[in-house]
């Protein structure tokens, strides 16, 4: 129930932000939050791990922004004095979460494919339709 209320307030912030127009500082903060600010700390956190650079980049690029960003964005908006800074904080949070929903909702498949390579072909392995080679798992369970 609390999450539904939070998304309700977020929807109101979206209407407010898009209705009043968005300044360039909020757009810059949004782009930074969805790229460098998200990816760089994850790349650093994975230093010394077994993950490849491509896998690290995928984790950083696909990390969604949502509930936490809304909570901290609303806290910043309420803590700042009314005016330009509070509005920029609210609009940046709104654009960042909305951008994340669009990017990660619709673009996650494209991002994942571009970072991991093409999907395996449907007719290439043992046990695939059109091949004479039996699937080793099926042979093991029959014997």
UniProtKB/TrEMBL annotation:
Residues spanning the membrane: 24-47, 59-77, 89-112
Domain of life: Bacteria
Membrane topology: Multi-pass membrane protein
Statement: the UniProt record of this protein carries the keyword ATP-binding: no
Alphabetized UniProt keyword annotations: Antiport, Ion transport, Membrane, Transmembrane, Transmembrane helix, Transport
Location of region: Disordered: 117-143
Coiled-coil ranges from the UniProt annotation: none
A Pfam family the protein falls into: Na_H_Exchanger
InterPro entries: Cation/H_exchanger_TM
Protein's cellular compartments: Cell membrane
All copies of domain Cation/H+ exchanger transmembrane, residue ranges: 5-106
Protein known as: Cation:proton antiporter
């Amino acid at each position: 129930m609390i999450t539904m209320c939070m998304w309700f307030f977020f929807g109101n912030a979206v209407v407010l932000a898009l209705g009043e127009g968005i300044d360039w500082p909020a757009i810059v903060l949004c782009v930074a939050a969805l790229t460098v600010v998200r990816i760089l700390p994850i790349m650093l956190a994975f230093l010394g791990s077994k993950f490849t650079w491509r896998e690290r980049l995928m984790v950083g690029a696909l990390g969604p922004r949502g509930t936490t960003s809304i909570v901290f964005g609303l806290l910043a908006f309420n803590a700042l004095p009314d005016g330009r800074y509070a509005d920029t904080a609210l609009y940046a949070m709104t654009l960042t979460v909305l951008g994340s929903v669009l990017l990660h909702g619709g673009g996650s498949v494209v991002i994942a494919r571009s970072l991991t390579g093409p999907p395996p072909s449907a007719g290439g392995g043992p046990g695939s339709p059109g091949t004479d080679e039996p699937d080793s798992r099926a042979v093991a369970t029959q014997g």
